[in-house]
Amino acid sequence: MQAISTNTRKLTITDYLLATLLVLITLACIAPIWHTVAVSLSDKSAVEGGKVLFVPVDFTWNAYLKILDDAKFFRAFAVSLERVVLGAGIQFLLTVLMAYPLSMNSREFAGRNIYMWFIVFTMLFGGGLIPWYLVVKSLGMLNSIWALVIPGAVPVFNVILVMNFMRNLPKELKEAAYIDGSGPWHLLLRIYIPVAVPALATVTLFSIVAHWNDFFQGLILMSKPENYPLQTYIQQLVVQLDLNETDSDKLEQAAKLSNKSLNAAKIFVTIIPVLLVYPFLQRYFIHGITLGSVKE
Amino acid sequence: MRNRRFQFHYHLMMLPGIVVLCIFSIVPMLGGVIAFQDFNPGLGFFRSEWVGLDNFRYLFELRDSRTIFFNTVFIALMKMAAHLIVPLLFALMLHELRFGRLKRWIQTIVYLPHFLSWVILSGIVIQLLSSEGPINQLIVALGGQSIMFLGDNNWFPYVIVASDTWKEFGFETIIYLAALTGISPDLYEAAEVDGASRMRKLIHVTLPGIATTVVLLATLSLGNILNAGFDQIFNLYNPLVYASGDIIDTYVYRVGLLNIQYGLGTAVGLMKSVVSFLLIVMSYWMASRFANYRVF
Amino acid sequence: MKGKHKKIGLLMLACSLAFVSACNSNNSNSGSSAPSSASNSGESPSAQASGAGSETVDPLGKYAEPVTMTIGKAVPPDDKTLPEGDTVENNQFTRYFEEKLNLKFKAAWIAAQGDAYDQKLALSISSNDLPDAMVVSEKELKTMVKAGQLEDLTKVYEQYASPYLKQMYDATNGKAFKNATFDGKLMALPNLNVDEDPIKLLWVRQDWLDKLGLKPPQTVDELAAIAKAFIEQDPDGNGKPDTFGLLGDSDNTFGPLYSAYQAYPGMWLKDADGKVVYGTTTPQMKEALGKLSEMYAQGLLDKEYAIRKDTSELINGGRAGMFLFGGWSTGWGLYDSFKNDPKAVWKAYALPLDGSGQYNATLGPVSSLYFVVKKGYSNPEALVKYLNLYANVENDAEAMAKLINGVNAAYFPLRATFVEPNIVTNRLKAVKEALDGKIQPDQLRLDQKDVYDKVAANNADPGKDPGSWMYSTSYMVGGGALESPMNKVLGVFYSQTKSMELKWPALKKMEAEMITQIIMGRESLDAFDSFVAEWKKSGGDQITREIEEQLTE
């Protein structure tokens, strides 16, 4: 059955007002990014002098050229890439595997409530940094990609989100499948996953971004800077020049390092890959795929 | 009964995730015992001196205990509310937008501030709110007096909440958008057929459709009741606004500057966990009892 | 929300112990020390090698068999000065020690200088997973001593320290060792800070002074007048009222201004009666605050100084011409000011003077970093031997030639400032003599020649090479100001007492709030008196007593 498209209605003044409002808000969001880009394309001294706002001053590609020249940057990039692929992949797997049974009610799945409270509990409680670190260490994972990927393999928040989404799907889905003689795996793979795509796309995005953005785990779990993921590598480079520093040694080091233009470039460069991946996931939660109808 | 057959499979699906959680969440929790010890890394877990609730007592007996607790809860509550309402409104507005391409661009861009760290953003916020910044210039142009937002206890908490909301609303918008796609278009059709206006459709179809998601997010956000946002506040506060901006985490951080603090940090973490857990349990129970609804 | 709770561990660096660490506690993770100790026939495995072995005690002697030491290494993050093929574990510095002592280094972990290193260090200590030797600050030292993680170095210092090393430490009159000694035992070897580093100076745009026909301010009132002129008389000549008077920073560092009133906030001193007093609570402080609040009210200070986190933009952007929070080395941060405006000339002065016409310069602690050795390490004397050479590099022409050649000195395996206290003015003196032709450049000590080369290069073509400009400005301008006569004020106590652990954060908070509120006019000067009373009551008196006790020990 073809949906009656709401698009046949004429555009009203409300539509334009709404669009304007949203665009204004959007501009407010893009402003700092724009500023960062402008800084990255400006001459270092102009930036240090606070002269750059939204337009590059003394336009130069220097910052980006310097990045391309830096082998460490690419190595960190590769580490992050590996981490995202493995990490988001494993998280996706475990999210789906857990959200689906949890989306059943307690009649269909005895013990469901226990599992549910169990994972909520783990989301809220922890023993602190050191015991966690020691567990990872005792499993021999330190300084390997697995340390970045396995300990956080169950993203509980994501699991709950997807569980909730699945729980809200029409019961008819399940009923129809059972009548057809489907088993739980079949139901999961053939029906639930395709239908839950908006939620899955959302949490996949979160997974990817979380792995991509993390710097702290990269710092404490890797003992050699060669193994740092990208954000960890960049984090240590964003040094603020503090003229208040009493240790001349430290001040000298900071002065050599402090390059706001380069820092801005590095930050922007870490955003780019996410921007590239983003559209592919976006279409799933903007438009969605729902049963039997085509939207927009 | 098919349910019994399926049980085994459900348990199987849960297994890998539960194993990971046990190893990396439950086991480290045992180390939380530090909160009750005068922990000495040389003596370790078994031999460090037991001090009972001393670490907690310290937190409550500070001169500024009341202030920092109040600030923490005040700011955290406002953030919770803002993080619930603003993304919801924005998602609804975006949902209503009729310009498809624009919709996707807007949604992508508002997500970007999430990627900037507070180290970077604080510089931008400071400049924005300075006496020479655009906001004050606007105020003066309209005939008012320049306000030192970051130096005024009346404004500081709101600045914190507003800037944080601005940074993160794009993230939560995605969740709502995904939930919105889950609403069957048939419902909209039916409403259309019944002659419902845009507003009525919003109230009677859209909102109920995402109600479960809203409730879920609201409940889970209770987990952050004592997290006022260390990173952000640390980068933005100064002695002028200690009275309204000093939170538990920033205070504990300053204590940690003098000595490595084991027990105190873990005690604070434990306290946060317990409070969060209790609140979540309470809301779950209330929803269950009064609305006959299982939040998760 | 998700996983954020793990992040909380970050700021607390809370440590809990997993069951595993109990097994871990004394297991050396530095596997490499085990084989080497076996081959070091003469040395007994325990620390106190009281000549019990057949190897003679030779401070500078080479080990018969190679000894390996694992370290936690801080590296400069973006550094490109290592030649091709060299690594953190194998570079000119490590090779030098290997050649001289047969001492090899391995890195247990490597982290960038600064925050990253501190985090890793704290984690290492907390999980009881230590390299053989490290450089730590006082905070970590105390924790490690309490945890019994460190080797007692008293005997090995006695036996293995070279005369020169002992001389350097003795020159501090015991001050260096004070914080490194616990219960009469020397648990660490402290570094030696440059005396001159913490001294704050007045940095001012000389070209602005010249343009407005002003002289460097001898008194605080003159300084205020200059601030006023800078604001009102458009020294940057662009027709816009965009210039600042006196800049401040959010730490309320107006150092020399306080000193001009003989007020020393943040420092522990002895008053006229010989009693210990905290600088911020003295009546002189009240006077200084009065002046500062007056200046603020008149708009002479940066209105938003307490909020501004980045003053360098104003300085390098040519909008600010005067600040008091920089030391001699500020030159390293001023290059962009020159680049943006080649006519900008920054000068440093030991000004303003106090009522009796002298400049009071505040000093910092003699030591702030400590070389430590893990308990149970087979060769603690290796650290002493390392320091023997390390301390002597500047006096050893051969060492200098091999080591001071453009590669970042941060690659020394264990690195902390370890120099004569007045090295800046010493170098400056030598450089000036060479510039005047009194001595030949080649006769200079290598580290002095290094500075000379850079100054000469900058003189030849000012500003062309940023590094040379920075060196030149720091030494000639900043260092030059240090040559003025000064009354050096040394604190009596730079550490922590027992009560401070619990009470100091609250006291510090009170202090910061009070100072900022008074200066910015939100509280009247009377708030100072109530602060002092409250401060004393809330633990200040107790802490003062504890310090007095410690000093009489």
TrEMBL record, chain B:
<keyword id="KW-1133">Transmembrane helix</keyword>
<dbReference type="InterPro" id="IPR035906">
    <property type="entry name" value="MetI-like_sf"/>
</dbReference>
<feature type="transmembrane region" description="Helical">
    <location>
        <begin position="12"/>
        <end position="36"/>
    </location>
</feature>
<keyword id="KW-0812">Transmembrane</keyword>
<dbReference type="InterPro" id="IPR050809">
    <property type="entry name" value="UgpAE/MalFG_permease"/>
</dbReference>
<comment type="similarity">
    <text>Belongs to the binding-protein-dependent transport system permease family.</text>
</comment>
<dbReference type="InterPro" id="IPR000515">
    <property type="entry name" value="MetI-like"/>
</dbReference>
<feature type="domain" description="ABC transmembrane type-1">
    <location>
        <begin position="69"/>
        <end position="283"/>
    </location>
</feature>
<feature type="transmembrane region" description="Helical">
    <location>
        <begin position="105"/>
        <end position="129"/>
    </location>
</feature>
<protein>
    <submittedName>
        <fullName>Putative aldouronate transport system permease protein</fullName>
    </submittedName>
</protein>
<feature type="transmembrane region" description="Helical">
    <location>
        <begin position="68"/>
        <end position="93"/>
    </location>
</feature>
<feature type="transmembrane region" description="Helical">
    <location>
        <begin position="205"/>
        <end position="226"/>
    </location>
</feature>
<dbReference type="Pfam" id="PF00528">
    <property type="entry name" value="BPD_transp_1"/>
</dbReference>
<keyword id="KW-0813">Transport</keyword>
<dbReference type="GO" id="GO:0005886">
    <property type="term" value="C:plasma membrane"/>
</dbReference>
<keyword id="KW-0472">Membrane</keyword>
<dbReference type="GO" id="GO:0055085">
    <property type="term" value="P:transmembrane transport"/>
</dbReference>
<feature type="transmembrane region" description="Helical">
    <location>
        <begin position="262"/>
        <end position="287"/>
    </location>
</feature>
<keyword id="KW-1003">Cell membrane</keyword>
